[in-house]
Amino acid sequence: MDEAYGLGEGRYSQLFGSKEPTQIFVDHLKKVNEICVQLDLQPMLWSDMLFCLAAKNNTLQGYYEETNNPTTPEIVEVMTQGMDLIFWDYYHTYSDIYEQKIKQHRDMGCRQPWIATGAWTWNRFWTALPFTFETVRASTVAAKHSVHGVRNSFITLWGDEGNECDMYSAFPALCYYAHHGYSSQEEIDIVLLRHTFEGVCGGDFDDWVVASKIDDTPSGMPIHQRTHFAPNTSKWLLWEDPFLSFLSPQYAEEDFESHYHSIAEHLFYSLETKLNAGPLNTRLELPARIARVLSLKCHLRQRLAEAYRQQHYEQLYDLAQGRLVRLQEEVDHLWRYHRKMWMKMYKPFGWEALELRYGGLRTRLQTMYDQIMAHVHYVVAVKKAGSGVDSEESEHARIEEFEVDLECLYYESRTNMLLDYSKATTPSRPG
Length: 431
Hints:
By secondary structure, the chain is mostly helical. About 50% of the residues lie in helices and about 5% in strands.
C-alpha cells in the first residue's frame, strides 16, 4: 500500500480500462481490511498515498499542501471500519501544519490518527540533531495538544542511501522525544535532558550535538519555518571525486579547512578525556575521523590546481607528498574504523555497498597522486634535458583535470544541499 505511484496506469488499465487511482486504492484497501478483520488484526497504513493520489501529485507537496483534503464518502466508509492512518512528517518545524493535517485525517473518518516523526539518520553519517529537535518538537507539541492532539505517536529512523549513519547517533533525539512524551509543556528541561542522556546512554549530550556540525557550515545554518530539510554536507564532500572536485565552487567562500579541523580537534579531545565519564563517547570517533578527512580534502584540489597553473612545481610536489598522502592515510583510517563499527552492529551484507564507495575514493586519490608525481618528474626531466616544459610529447606533460575551470552548479543552494552518492561522486554519466 506504500508509494503506489502510477496506480492503474500499467497492466491494470490494459485489463480493466481507465479508472480513478484513488478508487483502485480504496477498493484494494477494503479487501485488505476484510482479511485483517478475519485474522483479528488491526490495520494501519501511511496516509500519504490517499493525499497524493487525490492531488495527482506524487511529491511531498501533494501530501503536505494545506488545501489538499482527499476526503470522499468512499474513504470515510473504509476508515470508519476501524482502519488507522499514520500521518508522517519529518520536515516541518512549526506545529500548525501538523494540527491541520490531524484535522484532515479525522475528516476522512479516522478518529484516532497516529503521528510519526523522524530522527534525521538517512543519507548522512551522523544524525542531524539540531534540525531533528525542531521537527520533533513541532510534531509532539501538536500530538499532545489537549483538544486537537492524538493518542499515539512514534519516532522513526531510516537508513536510506546505504545506511552510512551511525544509528546510535540518534540517541539524543530519542531522549529528546521521550522527554516530550513525559511532559505536557511545549518546552522541555534541557539541563535534565543532558543528565538523562549522560545517565541512560553514557555520553556527553553537547559533544554529540557538536558532531552534527559535520553537516553544517562555519557560519552555521539557521533553522526557521522555511527550512524543510537538513543538508548532508559531510557526505557529498567525502564522496565527491577529489581530482575533479566539481562541487568545490559550492563552498568556495567557506573556510571548511578550519571548520573541520576545529570539529576534529574537539571530538578527539572528548574521546581522550571523557570516556570514563561517558563510555558511549567512543561513538564520536566516526564523525571525528570524517572531520579530519574533510579538513584535508576540502580545497585541496584548489591548492593543487593553483600550484600547477602557476608552474610552482616544488609547491605541487610538497602538496602531493604532504597533504595528499596524509589524506590517503586518514581515508584509510576512516574506512577501517567504519568497517569495524558496521561489523559490530550488523551482518556483513550491505557493507559491500559502502566499501565500494571507499574503494572508489581511495583509488581516485591514488590516481591523483600518481598523475601529479608523474607530471612533476616529467617537468624535472625536461628541464634537465634543456627542453621547454610545454612539450606535448608525453602523456604526463599536462594534468588536464587541473586545467578545467569549475563553475557553481547549484548557485542558489551553495552548501545547503542534500545529495545522494550518485550525484555527489562525479559529474560524468557514461552509457
